[in-house]
Design a protein that fits this description.
The complex is a heterodimer of chains A (330) and B (333). Chain A contains 15 helices and no strands. Chain A has 330 residues and is mainly α. The chains are: A mainly alpha (330), B mainly alpha (333).
Chain lengths: 330, 333
Amino acid sequence: MQKNKNTKRTNGDNFFSRIFHSPEFGVLIPLLVIMLITTLINPRQFLTITNFSTMLKIIPFLAIVALAETFPLMTGNVDISVGRVMGFAGMVFPYCMMVLGLNGWISFIIALLSGGLIGLFNGFLIVKLKLPDFIATIGTLYMAGGARFLLTKGYPLSPLPFGFGKFGDLTPLGLSWPFLIAVILFVVVGFTIKKTVFGRQLLATGDNRAVAALSGINVPRMRMTAYTICGFLVAIAGILFTIDLDNGVPQNGDGWEFKAIASCAVGGVSLRGGKGSALGVAIGVLIINVLDNSLIMVGVPAALQKSLTGIVLAGAVMLDIIKQRRKIRA
Amino acid sequence: MQSEANIIKANRPRRGGIKGLLLSPEVSILIPLIVLSVITGIINPKFLSWGNFSVILRYSTFIGVVAIGQAVVIMSGEIDLSVGANACFSGIIFGVCAITYDLGFIPSALIAMLAGGLIGFINGYLVASFGLVNFITTLATMFLCHGLAITISGGEPIAPLPDAYFDFALLRPLNLSWLFFIMLGILIITEIVMRFTTIGRKVKATGGNKEAALMGGINIKRVKWGAYIFSGVLAGICGILYAVELSAASPESGIGLEFRTITACAVGGISLMGGEGSILGVGIGFVLLMVLANCLQLLKVESNWQLVIIGAILIGAVLFDLAKKRVQAKSEQ
């Protein structure tokens, strides 16, 4: 498997050329192009506060799931189970409170742990037992997918006790809580990836496992940690979504695994590992959502939207490969 | 995303005699199938009638056709997630050709198979020649196919197909259906090709050890390309057969088939790291899955538990495969 150093960047002298050469900038262009085209075609409905605030309502949850997916992807693995695990954790939380009668915070921690444990289980299967990542996470996808329905025999749990439901209605600084929490998570993760030894080790693990091991990184532990963090973050998304809806719905998160992977791919996370940034993922999530929204605004039939999403996904990954090839030649 | 287990295996010579037979992968899958059948038969004697079993076999036709293609792709070291959506897309194409344009069966079927093959061609190009990650590529084509299927059909089933097709699907030789025998024919031909011809060896060599296959003068790109096209055409055939069976082409068909076929391959002893397995084993694998579903139904197990069980079986089957390889590697040292 070929891997090249793509984290290395030509350090421009001034601030602007650095921004211009950053990988995030490249991702930003399609977002701006999409928004520009949509604005030109349908300015009345697209560039409105209502439209954007509707988009911002769903984006934080998908964004956190995509951020979670970034961790396995950075280490060169993939996690297909994220969507169902999100639904599962989002059910465990109200289940603990309303069926088992536990305290709100204890339930919160249990739900968080349930996600983390599934992540750890994925990591264990893949790293210790050497299952192919893809297959192992399809297995947990099935298991979490069935388990979330088993908790309540498929019935939703609503309304949440302890005033959790009202929590979702609060709007600090004119934004929603999930949005703020997502921003905080992105900042923390972005800082961790870029500035800490741990982040560097994660990227090194994905870039070239043999080299990483030779330079003293505990590669198996890194890969397992990535899966565990992924599980925790996904659980956070699930719990927040349940709180926001004031309703635990088992179907939450269905199909989000593919949206999350698409967001990461579009956002410049290399699917072969070793490359990725929180900012890129954030832009990737925006692109996928704005694209969905734009296609409706422009009047593309709903059925074709799925096809276009597929084409955009393939296109984004192809661009990534073309860029890498150019760098190898240069 | 390939593991070091790839290096271990090569085409091992088969052992003869009864011991060899017992150790052969097909027999080791047949045993759980028999055990499962006997247990279910004891609990519910209805299960062991040919009437019940022939229904299981009849319904295994559709997953079977697709699983054969998936198996060849997996043996070549790749994976195909687009099969389910592709079957749906090709089925719609078949329906449109047969009903809207009234082209007759053979031209419609050929066009549908071509459509399926085209999707396989795209997958092959992007994965083998362009070097895209296999699951992302086939995920993208899955979206593509599904969107196209809904667009072309307008979200509604295309029905009814000419009565002659439906009458054909209702024929019951041996209480099975001709559609089942078509699948069986494809299975046997593929098994023969994969086991006894150089094509089969090339596919397994490509999946088993890429570098060694390259050194051995195998055109890896062409092999992978071929595997994807084969899988695409078979998905197309599945779409046709399913449309004939239902007498309608539904844009909802084929959902989840990708995961079920991968599970069937894993259970059927196809190494998911590529390079190993037999089509006959896959045949037993998907029948085993169907029997299991039937058995859980007879035992009145909730459908959500079935999901959990399928997931556990998938992981268990792959773990078993890995453990077997470790034992083999040790005994060879």
